[in-house]
Write a structure and sequence with these properties.
Shape: elongated
Keywords: Repeat, TPR repeat
Pfam families: TPR_8 (PF13181)
Organism: Marinoscillum furvescens DSM 4134
Order of helices and strands: HEEHEEEHHHHHHHHHHHHHHH
Bound molecules: zinc ion
Helix content: 55-70%
Distance between the termini: 71 Å
Number of helices: 17
Number of domains: 2
Protein name: Tetratricopeptide repeat protein
Length: about 350
């Protein structure tokens, strides 16, 4: 099946960053991608990956590709002729060397589990590659998966002991932190299997919620359809994680974009009830009131954002100015427009409006 897909040719629209196991990111582009992309993965690696997924009841919905001499393993999401494809790319020699150094077969399994963790956590969707927090999530997943497969904690940590950089880099955390993340995942799995009966009550859906959040954030367009999708995905995020403050606020933002002000108000209020100092949510609340032509309330909530937010935003002043204008208060409107211009001097619409009002 792999060969069939790739016979059609994989054309990669732009270069994207991949999440590497350690050290550095890799930029993949059509020219730079492993020339052996069409080759089949080794049976061992694929078997390991299937085992990991079976433990978690998941389907294998990515391609596993062997790529010699990259001395690393990567998770990456590439756009091809048939749409986006998720890859796990690994260097067999690299896995073998780590395995020998670690003196356990679990080493390569844990590296592959780590890469699966990147895909399951939707880390490859933003195209920016590794970041320390992503690495820790993927490490935690690999610890979790290895416990489920029957590895001891030492076996789960063996690869990291031998491959992880001792010091933190811009993309990868220090080895000690990564070992802790693996231990955390491993311990979580161990405690879950002990409390098997309570499993459904104790499940933590945070990673699902984050996945939907990132899915929404990855949308680039500004059409109505794009906004509807954003609202739906942020809705999924709060469904899985009912205290996901940023997801409520973002939902409010795009409901405002869609002109669904009553709904936006409800979401903004949810965000504020979770965190009364979340000033971005007050802006969305004010926007909703403005949309419903309740300018007094709009001024009230823009004011809360203006008084508290650091740094202040020109947009809040401008929006409050238009609320004042709608109430016939030119003096306050002019003062706010001037403040908006102070913060963003090149804002031509505001410059024009100000000239018009002062005429
Ligand atoms: Zn990684």
């Amino acid at each position: 099946m792999l060969v069939l897909l790739l016979n059609g040719g994989v054309s990669i629209a732009q270069s994207v960053e991949a999440c590497g196991y350690y050290g550095h990111n890799a930029k993949f582009s059509k020219e730079q991608i492993c020339p052996q992309l069409g080759f089949e993965s080794s049976e061992d690696a694929e078997k390991s990956i299937r085992k990991i997924l079976n433990q978690l009841g998941l389907q294998m919905n990515f391609l596993v590709v062997q790529c010699s001499n990259i001395n690393n393993a990567f998770a990456v999401n590439l756009e091809g002729d048939i749409g986006h494809i998720r890859y796990i790319i690994y260097d067999e020699g690299f896995l073998e060397r780590i395995g020998m150094k670690s003196q356990t077969d679990w080493a390569s399994v844990s590296i592959l589990a780590h890469e699966i963790g990147h895909h399951l956590n939707a880390h490859t969707l933003d195209g920016v590659g590794s970041r320390p927090e992503k690495e820790l999530d993927a490490d935690e997943f690999s610890g979790f998966a290895l416990n489920r497969l029957g590895a001891t904690l030492e076996e789960a940590q063996a690869a990291m002991q031998n491959a992880g950089g001792e010091k933190a880099s811009k993309t990868h955390p220090a080895r000690s932190d990564r070992l802790n993340a693996i231990a955390h995942g491993w311990t979580n799995a161990a405690s879950l299997s002990k409390k098997y009966i309570d499993l459904s009550r104790n499940l933590d859906y945070t990673s699902y919620a984050k996945m939907w959040f990132e899915k929404a954030r990855a949308i680039r367009g500004v059409s109505e359809g794009d906004h509807i999708n954003r609202v739906a995905y942020y809705g999924k995020a709060t469904e899985y994680k009912p205290d996901y403050t940023a997801a409520y606020r973002n939902k409010a933002k795009y409901l405002n974009e869609l002109g669904l002000y009553k709904k936006a108000l409800i979401e903004a209020n949810s965000a504020i009830s979770l965190d009364k100092n979340y000033w971005n949510a007050y802006t969305e609340k004010a926007r909703a009131y403005f949309g419903m032509e309740d300018y007094q309330e709009a001024v009230k909530y823009y004011s809360i954002a203006i008084e508290n937010r650091e740094p202040q935003r020109a947009g809040d002043y401008a929006a409050r100015a238009f609320s004042y204008l709608a109430m016939g208060d030119r003096t306050n409107a002019i003062a706010d427009l001037e403040e908006a211009l102070n913060l963003r001097p090149q804002w031509s619409i505001i410059q024009q409006k100000l000239t018009e009002l002062k005429r």
